[in-house]
């Protein structure tokens, strides 16, 4: 009986050692895989130079939302733009949109759609007659992993300029580069007051969010 007890105890100790060793090995393997995965993330190497946008192939999509959940969306045309890439993936640039080209997608009735577009062009919103252009400038960029970038710059609407930060995905294409940039701007900072809770406190459920969402797709080609 004593011999069997000792054998059983020895087997138990061996089993524990094997089990713990297996767990440690698995943990080490997981840590190794994690390090390899992190090291395999390589930054996109951009070619330095001056680039211009292909305005016909680029786009700016907008979306605004009501407090109750409704929304409008549409697009606006990029008029011109340029990008400079320096060594170290430093990206700067400037883009100009023509506010007269603002369009709405979600309203199908032509009369209702034109009424909304006219309202957006009025001084209650973008005052397009007096401020027909808006611009986005990029002053600095930072590669935050793979081909994702963090951009810092200025956004100008109605002649009012405020700093803005945005993220973008940059990909290489045959003719140059394609960038998908997402940004949100606070319209109250540009004196766009219509149904804004920043200016009025008696709107009830007629409040339109101050946040306007933009999705900018830019295609640039290198200047010869």
Structural overview:
By secondary structure, the chain is an alpha+beta fold. The chain folds into two domains: 1-40; 49-222, Lipocalin (Beta Barrel), CATH 2.40.128. Helix content is 22%, strand content 48%. The protein has helices spanning 2-39, 110-121, and strands spanning 49-53, 59-66, 71-86, 90-104, 133-145, 148-157, 160-173, 176-186, 208-222. Strands 1, 2, 3, 4, 5, 6, 7, 8 and 9 form a nine-stranded antiparallel beta sheet that branches. The longest helix has 38 residues, at 2-39. The model is unreliable at 12-18 and 32-41 (pLDDT under 50).
SSE arrangement:
Elements: H1 2-39, E1 49-53, E2 59-66, E3 71-86, E4 90-104, H2 110-121, E5 133-145, E6 148-157, E7 160-173, E8 176-186, E9 208-222
Antiparallel strand pairs: 1-3, 1-9, 2-3, 2-9, 3-4, 4-5, 5-6, 6-7, 7-8, 8-9
Rg, Cα atoms, Å: 28 Å
Tell me the overall shape. Answer: elongated
Low-confidence stretches: 12-18, 32-41
The overall average pLDDT, rounded, is 79
Q: Figure out the total of helices.
A: 2
- The fraction of residues assigned to DSSP E strands is over 45%
Question: What are the salient characteristics of this protein?
Answer:
nine-stranded antiparallel sheet, elongated, 9 strands, Lipocalin, 224 residues, 2 domains, alpha+beta
Quick structural gist:
Strands 1, 2, 3, 4, 5, 6, 7, 8 and 9 form a nine-stranded antiparallel beta sheet that branches. This protein is an alpha+beta fold and 224 residues long.
